[in-house]
Write the structure tokens for this entry.
Amino acid sequence: MTAKAASVELADVPAADTAISKAPRTERGKRTLRKLLDAAAAEFGERGYHEASISGITQRAGAALGTFYTYFDSKEQVFRALVDDMGRLTRQHIAERVTGTSDRLTAERLGLEAFIDFVRGHKDLYRIVMEAQFVAEDAYRNYYRVFAEAYRRNLVHASAKGEISPGHEEERAWALIGMSVFLGLRYAVWSDDRPAAEIAAAAAELITFGLSPQRGKGMS
Amino acid sequence: MTAKAASVELADVPAADTAISKAPRTERGKRTLRKLLDAAAAEFGERGYHEASISGITQRAGAALGTFYTYFDSKEQVFRALVDDMGRLTRQHIAERVTGTSDRLTAERLGLEAFIDFVRGHKDLYRIVMEAQFVAEDAYRNYYRVFAEAYRRNLVHASAKGEISPGHEEERAWALIGMSVFLGLRYAVWSDDRPAAEIAAAAAELITFGLSPQRGKGMS
DNA sequence: TCTGAAGTTGAATATTGACTCAGGTTTCGG
DNA sequence: CCGAAACCTGAGTCAATATTCAACTTCAGA
């Protein structure tokens, strides 16, 4: 289900990660690869990396066991491909909902709201990212390194423009990412009945009074 | 090593979780159980749950394979015992370093500093907690539920006393926990060369300006 | 229609590792 | 010093499943 939503983007990129010899050369091959990727996302998301089985993936995809190895070298390789993809998708989704926003404080709120929405719509893929910490740690670190670096840049920029108080931007970036991740875990993965905007607003209030150079309410 | 540091506390409690029939009845038994718990912490911490093997645990403990099953019902059971223990140890350690602090904002800084220090000293056990999300999800949720609940209470209390601005305390609690967790991951687990106090101060600044009812610098 | 490259198949292989158990050793109260 | 309870031992059982591979099918182009 969730996997389905991501399938379009997923199928566009994997050639970059997949060994050249494994790339599909025909329409049929492309279709099969996509089915396998979606199935893998669902299987990993539902059962976790170790409980997941290749036969589970191929069954979901309606393919034979051996077909998996036509497109992937190993179980871990698909997993990594999915993690990398999730990074791209997440950044893209948040960027879309934040671009055009003039000031950082508003961007913080909208970004968090977008993040929570995104996680809600991609629970299985999100679970894969989190589990990557134990399955493909380098992919996991990279995922957050890229996020933190971009975040830090935004903060430095906003600080220069006087939209936020100057401070330790790197630590701030990691702290803010941590906030998002846990709010996402608690209010998107574990329970998603509260409006995302509500959670985002509450957190934004916390963040804002921490970042605002003004002394008054700075919710933009 | 890290496991060693925790061994005293570890050995004191497990009887509560272990099936009654499995509790050691002699000095020798207690000693063996402790060795197994320490070994399990080291094995799980270093290799992760699935890579870890019972034989690895018993080898580290200098015991035979079968001995493991004298004290535990399964691989998962030891793991859960370690997660629960980590919760107790963490709360205790933070509480020790925070009690006596009069105001919440100072407590936030000291608490974060204590947390980072603690994680640095218990990397393997901390990794176990994080991996619990995928191995024993209920234990993981419980771990953070207890934290969040206590945190929320502290915030409500501080809010009533006027030490912090009133707000959405539950969301704040989760956000702040997320901060700590990620700062811990980044500056304790992944790299621990920066002074913990420095990280804590940077984060406290962020937190303080978000919580302080005063408009000025409120670092206590 | 023919051909071979691409794709598909699923039984077979090989490894791994949790857990059992029957038999030995240690401990300790009496 | 005895005997039973507690403890320890490690080879063996058993299930799971990642990966391989040789035979088979599809299909686009000549």
Notes: Confidence is low (pLDDT under 50) at residues 1-19, 211-220 of chain A. Residues 24-26, 28-29, 32, 63-67, 70 of chain A lie near DNA strand C (CB under 10 Å from a C1').
